[in-house]
Amino acid sequence: MSKEIKKIGVLTSGGDAPGMNAAIRSVVRTCAYHHIECVGIYRGYQGMIEGDFKEMGPRSVNNIVNKGGTILKSARSKEFMTPEGRKKAYDNLVAAGVNALVIIGGDGSFTGAEVFNEEYGFPVMGIPGTIDNDIFGTSHTLGYDTALNTVVEVIDKIRDTASSHNRLFFVEVMGRDAGHIALNAGIGAGAEEILIPEEDLGLDRLLESLKKSKASGKSSSIVVIAEGDKIGKNVFELKDYVEENLPEYDVRVSVLGHMQRGGAPTCYDRVLASRLGVKAVESILEGKSNFMVGVLQDKIALTPLEQAIKGKSEIDRELLRVSDIMST
Ligand code: ATP
């Protein structure tokens, strides 16, 4: 184990995600287990610039494994994008005796970590925390499983009202660039069609599919739409288009929004966060830097930050076929 690492800083950055607290807890307790000090950095990189630090012992993270959000708060910091901002952050870390950082966040946060490492040679390790699951080098990001379960639960409720009134519901879920949430939650909730950024379903096919489903005796339907779906119309434009072309349908729209980020993390996210936190700290102590700790085929795996940032997390195309077959 590296002799130089005496104190590790941990921060959460970018959009918050359920499981971030469980990851903070894991980092803090793994540090304590290895007799290393741990410092919590508030409000991501902005807190690093402002020196908003707090020493964290193993008891400081009691009762947070089950909490959504992040006790360290998160932020987006424009100042960290400037060399002057990063210099302030570096000076604060040195003054506080911090030797390495664990960054819990998305690809933007990892880019910041990489830049910081390049400039100051400061050891950094990333943990993927974002509900979108859009990071290369991990099959699951923290919060994704919880978001899927939240979305499925809500669509189940929407289905109750849709079937009582013979309505067609368009449910918009998060995912500007990635359709993981829409595709998986859509299949899980029994959606008629799923519109995602990776695949252009086409308006004609959507209309055909809805006509077919009506003809086959379905009286209500749910269409799940990712924010950034390829058709390019927003969910309200899509509603107008369908109502113009299929006047027999009474279309309602439900935009799920930020509720998808909240809530207690699922058991899967808590276990994943615990595993990732242990590996992040132990990798730093082994002298590693500039990696993201992820999970691939249920094994914890390190991916160079550069690849995690540049690589594309692909959707499982077989799921498109499964979805098609399920809507028969
Ligand atoms: P989410 O996936 O939820 O958006 P994210 O980590 O991608 O999370 P961003 O807002 O893109 O969120 O990035 C978080 C922070 O990382 C930024 O506010 C900024 O402080 C830092 N950051 C991003 N890109 C850079 C960069 N090129 N140089 C320095 N810092 C950066």
From TrEMBL:
It is found in: Cytoplasm. One of its GO terms (cellular component) is 6-phosphofructokinase complex. The keyword Magnesium applies. Catalyzes the phosphorylation of D-fructose 6-phosphate to fructose 1,6-bisphosphate by ATP, the first committing step of glycolysis. Pfam families: PFK. The active site is at D132. InterPro entries: ATP_PFK, ATP_PFK_prok-type, PFKA_ATP_prok, Phosphofructokinase_CS, Phosphofructokinase_dom, PKF_sf. The keyword Cytoplasm applies. This is ATP-dependent 6-phosphofructokinase. NCBIfam families: PFKA_ATP, PRK03202.1. The lineage of its organism: Bacteria, Pseudomonadati, Bacteroidota, Flavobacteriia, Flavobacteriales. Gene3D superfamilies: 3.40.50.450, Phosphofructokinase domain. Allosterically activated by ADP and other diphosphonucleosides, and allosterically inhibited by phosphoenolpyruvate. Homotetramer. ATP binds at G15, R76, S77, G106, D107, G108, S109. Substrate binds at T130, I131, D132, R167, M174, G175, R176, E227, R252, H258, M259, Q260, R261. Residues 7-283 form the Phosphofructokinase domain. One of its GO terms (molecular function) is metal ion binding. Pathway: Carbohydrate degradation; glycolysis; D-glyceraldehyde 3-phosphate and glycerone phosphate from D-glucose: step 3/4. Its EC number is 2.7.1.11. Its cofactor is Mg(2+).
